[in-house]
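Could someone model flavin-adenine dinucleotide with this protein?
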Amino acid sequence: MSNKQTKSDVILIGAGVMSATLGSLMKELAPEWEIKVFEKLGNSGAESSNEWNNAGTGHAALCELNYTSEKPDGSMDISKAIKVNEQFQVSRQFWSYLVKSDLIRRPQEFIMPMPHMSYVQGEKNVNFLKKRYEALVNNPLFQEMEFSDEPEKLREWMPLIMDGRSSDEPTAATKIDSGTDVNFGALTRLLFDHLKDNNVDVNYQHSVENLKQASDGSWEVKVRDTANDNIEHHNARFVFIGAGGKSLHLLQKSGIPEGKNIGGFPVSGLFMACSNPEVVEQHQAKVYGKAKVGAPPMSVPHLDTRYIGNKKTLLFGPFAGFSPKFLKAGSMFDLATSVKPDNLTTMIASGAKNIPLTKYLIKQVMQSKEQRMEELREFLPNAKSEDWELVTAGQRVQVIKDTEDSGKGTLQFGTEVVSADDGSIAALLGASPGASTAVQVMLDVLEQCFPQNMKEWEPKIKEMIPSYGVSLTENPELFREIHASTARALHLEEDQEHSLDIEEKVLEKV
Ligand SMILES: Cc1cc2nc3c(=O)[nH]c(=O)nc-3n(C[C@H](O)[C@H](O)[C@H](O)COP(=O)(O)OP(=O)(O)OC[C@H]3O[C@@H](n4cnc5c(N)ncnc54)[C@H](O)[C@@H]3O)c2cc1C
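Reply:
Sure, complex below.
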């Protein structure tokens, strides 16, 4: 057993996209701070942030139907869509700043232009999509959106999806070309390379086992070096728990009152990946459908063109499922050990409320490959079983808490920052919209935990993120400027040329 003990300003637990983003923001705002990272796996971006473990959608509400809902009076509520889009613009600006400042290079390794489309069938859904389109298209953030219910147009937009469909079935789609495919795994690794180059001490195979607040308000963090089974003790003024699904357990270990009465519900994900290059070549978009009745919002079916490891591929899913693990590399006891005396009634209430969801997830997990192919064929009528194989994606742990509106044990589908009153520790829980909004969420962590520094930091934040604190919806000129400049910095405007370039490389490989 070693007696290694250190003191630093900041400890980041977990090497996913959230810690990578917070560390990178801190390096710009307080370069003198000493930062340590502890990650239990052997590499960064290996859990949910990994490119095979999430869908890689730059969520900006351009195609995800669950970010808009119909109000009882029949009008469309687009407030969530605006919020998610504005948050993605914040991410684009920070990534552009890092590229322009030469802190990370080759943005094409992590972000690609990719048309985003929504596709629906049936009269009711077509009417919903049309109404959604009409509500969004007058907003500057969604101005480029197109709508069509003409089969010929849809065939042009998504030939693979329209192939084999009868033209008397009502169908419609919206399309917007300024969507993106983001490789969050590559982004996380680029950010950690940058942090390591700038004296951040990144420790892999180091699992955080416990946290305790010292009498001076700092945190004592107990860490196991899993390579040689040594225990180490590290102290920091501020701790960020960015442990993905495991954040809840560590938050509970911290004992802060803000972490009480919160539970977690794990939902696993599976994709079908297409292995036939001829089929892959016929699709160039992210196409989102409508969630089935009873399905949770994170299992909205979508067919995505992805570029992973310089190879173009197609993924369909995610199929939701149930596993008690809180991480892909987690333990079968994660769910059971997350139940504590303070969240017991919350968990029991949630269990009773969510019986239909649990049944749905168990049914999903029991599906055979052929049953999954049937779901895929609702999207791609001519899909052949031999062209598709199953890929296990990441685990999402949805937050369960008591709310005023919905009562005890309510399942939340968003991302939540839980921080101590004294600002000495914060944890990130939940997984949606997730990585796309990492920059805004980490700015929220800074605002909650370092209110005394915000005034001093504001000019630098505005240099990095010109829209900081400003609504882009209400400032269309600023939006257009920012959208154009970030597209240039992130190489998103070379659209056709760039995709062709990649496709040529892929064809060479095939
Ligand atoms: C199926 C699926 C699809 C998704 N699709 C999208 C999408 O299209 N777009 C999008 O924006 N988001 C998407 N997300 C969400 C997104 O992947 C997550 O929000 C994001 O990756 C979370 O990052 P993180 O850094 O919080 O967690 P993670 O990437 O999971 O990283 C947490 C890290 O903490 C480490 N860790 C855990 N416990 C400890 C410990 N005790 N000590 C040390 N280290 C520890 C883990 O090993 C891991 O490396 C999706 C997620 C899933 C599961």
